[in-house]
Amino acid sequence: MSGEQYLRNILAREAVDTGIFSPVRNVQQTIDPIIQEWAPGVLNSVTPSGSFAKGTAIKSGTDIDLFISLAPTVTDTLKEIYTKLAARMKEKGYSPRQQNVSIGIKVGAYDVDLVPAKQQNWGLADHSLYRRRADTWTKTNVATHISTVINCGWHDEIRLIKLWRNQKGLDFPSFYLELAVIEALRVCLFMGLERNLQTVFEYLRDRLPNARFVDPANTNNIISDDLSAVAKAAISKAAGLAAAAGTWGEVVK
Q1: DSSP-based three-state secondary structure for 66
Q2: What pLDDT is stored for residue 22 in this prediction?
Q3: Would you say the C-alpha torsion 244, 249, 250, 253 has a positive or negative sign?
Q4: From its phi and psi, is residue 169 left (phi > 0), alpha (psi between -120 and 50) or beta?
Q5: Per-residue pLDDT averaged across 21-28, rounded?
Q6: Residue ranges with strand state E in 79-186
Q7: Closest among 191, 200, 196, 193 to 239, alpha carbons compared
Q8: Please, is 52 exposed, middle or buried when counting C-beta atoms within 10 Å of its C-beta (0-12, 13-18, 19+)?
């Protein structure tokens, strides 16, 4: 089997149904009543976001992200919104994991990340959300994030790098990872999946530790600040091993 076919087989194995009849979407029907009860009168919407909406999800990763948009009239602080949602999910029998901007829960067989955010102004898509690691807040625009990745043309490469990240146990937030892959392949002509992946690993090895990534929805939000120098060095080291591997089976399974 060629390396290209090996990687294609993995992509097929990790394919996620994101269509309107995807069983993963039933998760939202389960969660919606809890969210509506938690945020009466101030809930704008609950919509799929993250990798599921961008087309970069993998079967062995988080199944779906749900973006919870709250009205600008909410009086709670962003930290209170975040912690109160985690507490409510615990009250409802879930085991919430407080992550950075999301709250992870298990709904049946599915891993779900809840992302609560407050709309900044009526009629605009900009939202504020809590960043737990830094104990601060940031502005975001989910629609901008989704369109940035949907239109990049490197979905297969991103999905394989996400799988590699998960299998190696690396701390590498998904949007940061997506932006890094896009940048690595920014001036790259499509040379085949193997060569593209090699290019990405060489970029992560040589340039990621010092590269600066800015949120396309908020120039004041430096995405690359979400990881410490130690975490970036760990990604660089693992990428160096991947770039030097003799077979793709040593890199991703």
Answers
A1: strand
A2: 85
A3: positive
A4: left
A5: 86
A6: 97-98, 103-107, 110-119, 127-131, 136-140
A7: 200
A8: buried
Place of tokens 């149904």: 17
Contact residues for 56 (Cβ-Cβ < 8 A; gap 6+): 149, 155, 158, 159, 162, 174, 178
Structure tokens at 24: 């993963």
Contact indicator for 200, 170 with CB cutoff of 8 Å: no
The 10s digit of each residue's pLDDT in 1-20 is 899 999 999 999 999 888 88
Q: How many other C-beta atoms are found inside a 10 Å radius of the C-beta of residue 104?
A: 18
Query: What's CA 251's distance to the chain center, in Å?
Result: 21
Q: Are 59 and 94 in contact (CB under 8 A)?
A: no
Six-digit token string for 144? 């901008």
Q: Domains in the chain, start-ordered, CATH in brackets?
A: 23-147 (3.30.460.10), 153-250 (no CATH)
Token pair 């760990």 is found at 234
Return the residue matching tokens 């600040």: 225
Largest distance between two CA atoms of the chain:
59
